[in-house]
Amino acid sequence: MGTAFSFEGVDDRRNQEGKSFDAVRIPGFGLKLPNSEITIAFWQKVNGAQVQYSVSLSPYDFAHVCRCIAPYNDGKVWFDFGNNHTDGQLSYRPPVSILGKWHHFAFVASQTGNFMKIYRNGALEAQKIGMTPFENINYDLLFGESFGGLLDEVRIYNRALSATEILSIYNANSEKTGEQGKLKVRDAALTVGDYLPWRAYVSNCVETLIQYGTDRYGPLHTDMLMSIIDVQKRESPRKPLLLDGQIYYEERPQRRNPAGSNLWYDQATLRVMYRISRLTGNHKYAEAADRYINAVFKYAVKPNGLLVWGSHIFYDAYSDRAGGDGDGNGPHEILVYHPEWAELYRVNPNATRREIDGIWEWHIVDKQTGQHNRHDDRTAGGDFAFSGGSFALACAFMFSQTHEARYLERSKIIAGWHWQHRDSKTGMVPDAPSTGDRYDAHHCFTTITGPHASQLLRCYELTGDVWFRDVAVSYVKAYDRAAYDPVNHTYAAMLKLDGTPVKAQPRGKGYEAWAPTGPIDVWKTSIYSYEFPLIAAQSYIYAYELTVGDGKADDELLTAVRRWAELIENNLPPKTGRRWKAELQEAMPELSYTDGSYAEDYGRTISFFVHVYHSTKEEHYLTVAKEVARLAIDKLYVNGLFKGHPAKPYYEATNGVGILLHALMELDALPQRWQNAF
């Protein structure tokens, strides 16, 4: 089509079949329409949301349907193909208004791939598994039925175009200007073969979270972000599908925060929201984050003063009270992530101090030795490294704000608990020294070199006390020396304290089932069980960056960084790891079609390679980061949100979507460096 057709969007009902007068008609095209593989692409500038069809077959017949609607009177974009009473329908609500401006749409259905997809301006915005083939019939094809606006360059292909091909079509006309008879497009200019700017995906996701992802449930509505959101309905289901709830969450599906909100898992998301406001000057993102924090301080506090957050309890938005373990009366437990303590303190310094003082009061069992318990019960228990690091980091932050010496002392006492239990010869550190005969009291894992070391490095940045840095560097170097396998270019996941790697063994029973024997499994299949390879890789580059910043670049650390880079790259693309692969495939049958891994895996991989690039200036590492980012967008970005996993229909905070958003913002920051995604 050489010029844009103008439609008034009015059906004057002058013919008795009820077909629109104001439409372009191709008689009998239903006999020629591709029936199993099809792409329908066009440019349009629509005036409003109403009952209208950009492309359609007439008469309407649900069993022989082909309709592209952008938008309908409900504001949604619809794609009907084949039989829309069975599996032939896909719809979504665009993350931004599509009215009054030119937009390029591509509607794709594939029987071979068993999917339906909708692209807008070269980016995938909606997709689903399943489709129905079209049965050819003598119906007319219409362009612009009851449509109000401009329609141009309608193309129908007898195959499912790839994302790259669709983006190329979009790019080919993205600089055209003019109105009726020409084309006017003012969307972001892209390079052929590339995607939208990284920040665009992040902004769209954050915009969608602010608009649709807050607590709109139960009698009391709050500004907390929901942990699980159906990406098509943009609602948080009260009872989400179980899916990987038993496997990934280690037989504790409540860790997903079903029907609820959990600030702990949104720390990276908060960081991104504040950054977007700083970069754009638009305060609405920061203000939304502030409202979220304030709501938690107001409504999600335990009787002992600690927050309702972490890996056991959350805020149930439907019943407006704590939920999770013990019907909401379970333990306070924080671990792994680096909280945005500075923003929490800015919003409410008294409540933040209460939380951090409560950690010392309820979690630190022995105030002299630093023995701690991941649970807030004041008794000896699971002194896991990734919890201890969180406690030390909280106190280090408080020292950075108040300069009260007691907080620095507390931080060093807590961090010293694991330090004093290291093997004097090998430097190996047990993950949980107090658990007696259990294996985690006598073995070292990437819990030490990953979350714990990264938390100590952050303590150093906050306090300036080199003891934290030196302890963390000691841990990662000791592990590298003992765990690296130069023959197979991998690392052991579990070592005895004498430095002996534990060879692969059949899965044990009970708690033994979570012991990560054999070589590292790069792509995690469970949320917390002693294996954090990607965070370990991040810790190595983090440690190296700090030594460079201190004017003493450590070549031993850089060698280890390159080893991790090689290991991760050799295992790309992200996929289902080996440890619980069969169980996850059974729990999520869509895995056989989607493959891929969790959002956090993509995010941490991107962040790691971006930082390796910054440190080495070797373009190859940046290329890897960008390729993984594109994979994440292809696999996870749907309807203005990122899914937690390609095989799930949900955005899920506990799957690390915030980490992925953070990593994409690191790419956005280039050539400048932004902090690691922890």
Instruction: Write down the overall geometry.
Output: elongated
Q: What is the level-2 CATH architecture name of the domain at 5-196?
A: Sandwich
Would you state the CATH class of the domain at 5-196?
Mainly Beta
What's the CATH topology label of the domain at 5-196? Jelly Rolls
Q: Which strands sit side by side, in order, in the main sheet?
A: 1-12-3-8-9-10
What percentage of the residues does DSSP assign to strands (E)?
A: 15-25%
Instruction: Tell me the Rg in angstroms.
Output: 27 Å
Poorly predicted parts:
10-21, 175-194
Given the structure, what is the number of helices? 17
Overall pLDDT confidence: 91
Query: What structural class do you assign from the helix and strand content?
Result: alpha+beta
Q: Tell me about the largest β-sheet.
A: 6 strands, antiparallel
What is the number of beta strands?
Answer: 23
Distance between the termini: 50 Å
Helical content class:
25-40%
Please tell me about this protein's structure.
This protein is of the alpha+beta class and 678 residues long. It has a domain at 5-196: Jelly Rolls. The protein has 17 helices and 23 strands. It has helices at 163-173, 198-212, 267-280, 284-299, 341-347, 349-363, 385-402, 405-419, 446-463, 466-483, 533-549, 555-570, 581-587, 591-594, 599-616, 619-636, 657-669, and strands at residues 5-8, 24-26, 37-46, 53-58, 65-69, 77-82, 89-92, 103-110, 115-120, 123-129, 140-145, 148-157, 228-230, 260-261, 313-316, 321-324, 443-445, 484-485, 490-491, 494-496, 637-638, 641-642, 650-652. The strands form seven sheets. It has a six-stranded antiparallel beta sheet with strand order 1-12-3-8-9-10. Strands 2-11-4-5-6-7 form a six-stranded antiparallel beta sheet, with no helix packed on it. Strands 14-15-16 form a three-stranded antiparallel beta sheet, with no helix packed on it. A hairpin with a 2-residue loop joins strand 9 (115-120) and strand 10. It starts with a strand and ends in a 9-residue tail after the last helix.
